[in-house]
Design brief:
- By secondary structure, the chain is mostly beta strands.
- It has strands at 3-7, 10-12, 18-25, 33-39, 46-52, 57-59, 67-72, 77-82, 91-103, 106-113, 117-121.
- The chain is elongated, with a radius of gyration of 15 Å.
């Protein structure tokens, strides 16, 4: 049973910073992509940032230059450092881990989500 537990959300003023953490437990293939997505009220879930086990990162356009994703493979933890926060960053932030396992000529995909942590940016 895979579990992803997020922490670090909360209320912050515009221009402030927060750091989110997500710890993974259970059986997860070591070659994987971990990351963060967010969903604001009335909007679809969107990519925030992802990072592969090798350290390759990808960011959503709206957070480039302000957010930094990192991971500690030994601790099975992914982090999201959020700086220069804006009211439009307000959302529930979800941790995610994805990987595929080759089964002969096919690949079985695995996709796990955390329960989410609320981030509110408001004065």
């Amino acid at each position: 049973q895979v579990q992803l537990v997020e922490s670090g959300g909360g209320l912050v003023q515009p221009g402030g910073s927060l750091r989110l953490s997500c710890v993974a437990s259970g059986s997860i293939f070591s070659v994987n992509t971990m990351g963060w997505y967010r969903q604001a009220p009335g909007k679809e879930r969107e990519l925030v940032a992802t990072i592969t086990d090798g350290g390759t990162t990808r960011y959503g356009d709206s957070v480039k230059g302000r957010f930094t994703v990192s991971r500690d493979n030994a601790k099975r933890t992914v982090y999201l450092q959020m700086n220069s926060l804006k009211p439009e960053d307000t959302a529930v932030y979800y941790c995610n881990v994805k990987y595929g396992v080759a089964l002969g000529i096919s690949v079985r995909s695995y996709d796990y989500w955390g329960q989410g942590t609320q981030v509110t940016v408001s004065s």
